[in-house]
Structures are given as C-alpha cells and as structure tokens.
Amino acid sequence: MKNITLRILTLLSFCFLTLAVTGCSVFEKKPAANNLAAAQQTAFYTCDSCHGPKNIRVDDMSPKIIGQKQTFLVEQLRDYRDMKRINPYMNGVVSKMTNQDIDNLAAYYSNYKQHQH
Questions:
Q1: Mind listing the pLDDT tens digit for each residue in 9-21?
Q2: What is the CATH number of the domain that holds 13?
Q3: How many angstroms separate the CA atoms of 99 and 97, rounded?
Q4: Residues 6+ away with beta carbon under 8 Å from 30
Q5: Quick check: pTM over 0.90?
Q6: Structural domain boundaries, residue 52
Q7: Is the predicted pLDDT of residue 117 greater than 60, yes or no?
C-alpha cells in the first residue's frame, strides 16, 4: 500500500509540475537579461523558490547553485534547455531562455557574494 501511495504521489507531482511549467506566465519568453539587475530579477522569480535565496534551499533535492563555477552553470542550464538533461521542471523553466539569459544568470550565481551588501 505504501508503494502504491508513493507512486500515485509521484505521478501527481509530475502532472502538477508539467501543468505549472507549461501554463505559468513566469515561463513566458522575456527579453534577454543584459545586466545584473535583470539577472537578479530572473533569479528571484525563477530560481530562488527551489534553490533558495542566499543558498538556503527549500529541500535537499535542489542543488546549491550559489558560488558554482559559471561555466558549469551555463553547461547545466543549456543542457536542460536543449533536453540533454531531463527534469520536467527545469526543462520548462529554461526552455525559453536565450544563451544571453543563461550566461547572465550563471554569472550572477557564480559571483553571488560580490552582489550582496
């Protein structure tokens, strides 16, 4: 019974995430972030809800991204966008990000401590 309940919850979670990602206006195409302020806004509205502000993560499933190497973050985000890595939520989050959006977001997180007061 416990396994069946877990499977049902997993399936429902997947369905919810799929609907949220495909139907949520947060993921609509926005202009490329060409500066720190725009990257910071993207981080706040798109990333922090799972990865956490100031690296305080919501749960143990979300990896720490603050302070990671910029090249690593760029590669991971592009792999999610290009469906080389599969995670329904992440694929949806970055699906409409341009290379410039990803570069700016990765730069923001890799240099996070420099942006804090």
A1: 454 454 444 444 4
A2: 1.10.760.10
A3: 7
A4: 42, 96, 101
A5: no
A6: 2-115
A7: no
